[in-house]
Write a structure and sequence with these properties.
alpha+beta; 6-stranded antiparallel barrel; about 40% strand
């Protein structure tokens, strides 16, 4: 019987350890029913004013506002008290601070009255937060592919298109009884507490450029006090991870750059984390790093006090961002997009930047735009003439890599260079395909503090009559902004199968050729077709030569169908069909891309030649 003793002892030990682990996992406290709240009730709230330890302050219930922020929802109005709160007021980063009465959790501080003389806050009832995130799994329906514009794929002036805030400001005009504590607030604006977005490694110039777009979405851009946020694996979790009232960071970028949104934990229930009490960006289903953070200090400000925090260990992932707050799971690692940028400066130095960005159809292009612009301008001029070359690749899981080869010579080259990467990434992530996964982005960026740009003034041809298979030479005359002129000789071989008759010879930059193409947009059938279209977009920094014949043709999707037989044209133009193609009068015969010249050449010219027998 003694031989079974070790097995029995082991089983008992495992049971004891399991019971200890269960005991150490925090459970949700009892919820305070909204219907039991009465004006005058007093309780406490918790948040972090400095460091990582939570501090309590007083809360007095003033009343309940039904129908805000939405139908079948309510907001609790309360007055805050305590030495810290009286100094700071309701501050950005306080969102999610839990409120308790008689040891039961009431909700999360989430709203403020910006011009109130007293620290008055709106509280999201905890039941609303829990019910919204516990409504069951979302049924994901297959999305339809979206139309893609060739101008968008080749664009450099990408603009962010963040989702509108689900909860906006509203004037408190609800009917209240005479003598109600809510009377002094009538007519005042009640808004979600701003979420401080702390930037580390981002210059003030870059911050100022993108701040209006962020502020419009309820974010408060703040220059951080720390440096880089290390790219680390998921940290261990214990019973002391994310106690109610502790500071939480939603990491959007980590590595050589750090962008993190700061808020407060409302409640932990096992591995489930509830925070903020209002939406972050109303992204819905999301996948962003959830990290501990420490507070440097709370900056008191007449306009808007805010929490200055530094992100710490990543312990899980935010999976939901909805009207009543954000929801995350501990021990769950998010999928990030690794980015590596080698910057070759005008002073013959090479600097390497490595970081990760959150994977989101709205945020990823914006984060790329900000970080790439800052990478260039951190060592090179932000305003004034410059020439920037961008080469590299965007790796898409299961697809061929998207090759990047762009060059810009203008007084806003850094903006154009950053936008040229954000544009195709945005097209990929918003394409409607569910299998888009970016495995990484690697870029080599070279910069020169000089402008190398020229305009194609005219072209000449050595003869206007030519036979099939013969070569002709075109001379392209390009003039720089300084007035200098240079000539580029372009040999062209007429195709052996070219039909007799007139051909139009187009010489121009890729942007002009794309703009003149009848194929303006298309709906990709699958992800591989979209990737191929991105890889074949015309480049605006070099010349193209294209031969056209004046004859009926058509464009279907991304395919040009030249010189169609009369029977096919008749079928397409049948009275029984309409749409599905774009008719053309110029059918392409031959096309080539010329190697990039010393200058970025823009402009276009046409000349006619005759093919004789």
């Amino acid at each position: 019987m003694s031989r079974f003793t070790p097995f029995l002892f082991g089983a008992i030990l495992i049971a004891i350890l399991a019971s200890i682990a269960v005991a150490q996992t925090p459970k949700a406290p009892e919820l305070f029913p909204l219907e039991d709240l009465r004006p005058g009730m007093k309780g406490t709230a918790r948040t972090v004013f400095s460091g990582s330890e939570t501090q309590e302050f007083g809360v007095e219930i003033l009343g309940v506002l039904p129908g805000f922020p939405g139908p079948r929802q309510s907001s609790i109005i309360a007055k805050l008290s305590g030495s810290n709160v009286e100094k700071t007021g309701v501050f950005a980063g306080m969102s999610g601070s839990p409120v308790y009465i008689d040891g039961k959790i009431v909700g999360a501080i989430a709203f403020s009255f910006p011009f109130s003389r007293e620290p008055i806050a709106g509280i999201t009832p905890i039941k609303q937060m829990v019910e919204l995130f516990n409504k069951g799994s979302e049924t994901v329906k297959p999305r339809e592919p979206r139309p893609v514009s060739f101008v968008q794929l080749a664009g450099t002036d990408w603009k962010p298109n963040l989702p509108k805030q689900a909860v906006s400001s509203v004037s408190l005009l609800a009917p209240v009884s005479a003598g109600s504590p809510l009377m002094p607030l009538l007519g005042q604006q009640m808004t979600p507490i701003a979420t401080p977005l702390v930037f580390n490694g981002i210059s003030q110039e870059s911050l100022a450029m993108f701040a209006p777009q962020l502020v419009a979405n309820g974010l408060l851009p703040v220059s951080g006090a720390g440096g880089a946020a290390a790219i680390t694996p998921l940290a261990e979790v214990n019973g002391n991870t994310f106690p109610p009232g502790s500071s939480i960071s939603v990491q959007l970028v980590r590595g050589d750059y750090s962008l993190a949104a700061a808020g407060t934990v409302t409640m932990r229930d096992g591995d489930r984390i509830y925070a903020f009490g209002h939406p972050f960006l109303s992204l819905g289903a999301s996948d962003m790093p959830m990290a501990e953070s420490s507070v440097v200090t709370v900056i008191s400000n007449v306009n808007n006090s805010f929490k200055l925090s530094v992100p710490g260990r990543m312990v899980g992932a935010i999976s939901q961002d909805r009207a009543s707050g954000i929801f995350g799971l501990l021990r769950q690692a998010p999928k990030m997009i690794p980015v590596k940028v080698n910057l070759h400066t005008s002073r013959d130095r090479t600097e390497t930047y490595t970081y990760e960005i959150a994977n989101d159809s709205f945020l990823t292009p914006l984060l790329l735009n900000i970080t790439l612009f800052n990478t260039i301008t951190s060592s090179e001029r932000a305003i004034g003439d410059s020439t920037i070359t961008v080469k590299g690749e965007i790796r898409v899981k299961g697809q061929e890599a998207i090759q990047i080869d762009r060059r810009f010579s203008a007084n806003n080259s850094p903006i154009m260079a950053a936008g040229s990467i954000a544009a195709p990434v945005s097209s990929l992530l918003t394409s409607g395909f569910d299998d888009v996964q970016l495995d990484g982005i690697t870029l080599d960026i070279s910069s020169s503090e000089a402008k190398y740009a020229g305009t194609l003034e005219r072209i000449t041809v050595d003869r206007t009559e030519v036979r099939r298979g013969e070569k002709i030479e075109i001379q392209a005359y390009v003039r720089t902004e300084s007035g200098k002129q240079f000539v580029q000789q372009i040999p062209i071989q007429i195709p052996d199968d070219a039909a007799a008759g007139q051909l139009l010879v187009f010489v121009g930059d890729g942007g002009a050729l794309q703009e003149g193409s009848p194929a303006k947009a298309f709906v990709p059938q699958d992800l591989s077709q979209l990737v191929k279209a991105i890889n074949t977009v015309k480049k605006s920094d070099r010349l193209y030569v294209k031969l056209f014949r004046i004859t009926a043709g058509a464009v279907i999707g991304t395919s040009e169908l030249p010189s169609l037989p009369p029977s096919v044209v008749a079928t397409l133009n049948s009275d029984r069909t309409s749409g599905g193609y774009t008719p053309t009068v110029l059918s392409p015969v031959w096309e080539t891309e010329l190697p990039p010249a010393e200058f970025v050449i823009s402009g276009q010219q046409l000349i006619a030649i005759d093919v004789v027998r």
